[in-house]
Design brief:
Two copies of one chain form a homodimer.
Chain A: H1 4-7, E1 12-16, E2 20-24, E3 33-38, H2 51-69, E4 73-78, E5 87-93, H3 120-130
Antiparallel strand pairs in A: 1-2, 2-3, 3-5, 4-5
């Protein structure tokens, strides 16, 4: 069966190693939204022997977003109901974003306040510093 | 400031240790929905020195739900926008649940197919076996 996260990177890659890659999610109103995507096709975290190592990358993304954006909250989620290839959403949340305090998958409450995105390079450096 | 997850367990506790507790989420249509709640008031995973240990409990809950419910997918999420006291949602998802394949925070698509809940005791045993 075809899988879009096997067939493509799933976004602009800003960091990668042999286990996973970090891509920037192109979601309007969410400049601080990263995805950590397993390179192998694995469905659940408990299918992945290297789950601690993958979480260290997720937490490095959280650290990078906190450092660069100073968000009101960070949201972490591994859902995969649509694309069952292990990936984490790491999202800087702000009280004036489109959905706060709801999850970003709920209906929008407002138009997001504009917030300039950091460069891929700044994000990559912050992730590497946190690893 | 008052915090409901400092002031109460946040649900029926089915397992606990000095770091965290596992409670059963009382959400209609989701019999396989656990929450892993840090005992200390901590906001983000990167504020918690014991984050690997906490994730081992999250993954034990995932294993328990997979064993007992055989779900189509497991969803893991640490959001905390409403209650910024670190807690994880660990949710057994099924193609015929109310929101699939959307996140449970989206609008419902249908009435959930009935699915009997496992007992707290069966869940506790499966969590302990997975730890």
């Amino acid at each position: 069966m075809s899988c879009e996260l096997c067939d493509s990177d799933g976004g602009a890659v800003i960091w990668r190693d042999d286990l996973c890659r970090v891509v920037r999610a192109a979601v309007d109103g969410y400049p601080g939204f990263l995805r950590v995507i397993a390179n192998r096709h694995v469905k659940e975290m408990t299918d992945l022997a290297e789950r601690e190592r993958l979480m260290r990358v997720v937490f490095a993304c959280e650290s990078a977003l906190r450092q660069l954006y100073n968000p009101d909250k960070v949201n972490l989620a591994s859902l995969g109901n649509v694309v069952p290839h292990l990936h984490w959403h790491v999202i800087a949340r702000f009280a004036d974003d489109a959905h706060f305090p709801d999850a970003i998958w709920a209906a929008a409450r407002r138009t997001a306040a504009p917030r300039p995105p950091m460069t891929d390079d700044a994000l990559a450096r912050a992730i590497m510093a946190a690893l």
